[in-house]
């Protein structure tokens, strides 16, 4: 079989660097037959990376702005989008954690308000537990006589405790008579406002989580200020350039990812 005798040396690398830019030297070595024999996958990745870099050059020409470097501006916009997405995920995660803590603090007989579909409903907590993963779950008898199982995922808006009713251990909501009586007590108590220990149990967010969120918000505001202060922000063709800039940001991320894999 044909085997390449090409073996790169330090002197060869130095000589190549004297004649051409570093990026071109890298391409020459990546395209060598010896490299192809050593690892065909790396050569293919290098070819993909080169195509991405050429694509980047074309996109950079399309978003050229006479007011400034639109690559910087596009990077700022992408950083803002990423920061906003991170904040949104953090908010959803925090809300889920808070709902889980609220559910864990409930007990049998607590009356709660929760959203089911588009409506808010009242219900009596029958049982508090956790699934195999440790996620809190509560079993609630609603004012419509239905028993529902709620978790932080099925009750994303959370549950709010508004009071309590005494529910004896002997009461079995699976028995129609017990269930009907319990629902009637709930309806009567809601109409009369006669609920024991009314009020919402609240838990404040941990100082560490709040500090992390405050830092993320501060960073987002800093990025927004930098974007508004950038010369390209005043360009009349800003949004057209930004459309190309979004493609450039995605292509750059792909190119960087490919380069790290080589």
UniProtKB/TrEMBL annotation:
Domain called HelY-like SH3: residue spans: 98-192
Chain intervals for the UniProt region annotation (Disordered): 193-214, 228-262
Pfam families attached to this UniProt entry: SH3_HelY
Composition bias type Basic and acidic residues, residue spans: 228-243, 251-262
Keywords of this entry: ATP-binding, Helicase, Hydrolase, Nucleotide-binding
Molecular functions (GO terms): helicase activity
Protein's UniProt name: DEAD/DEAH box helicase
UniProt source species: Actinomyces oris
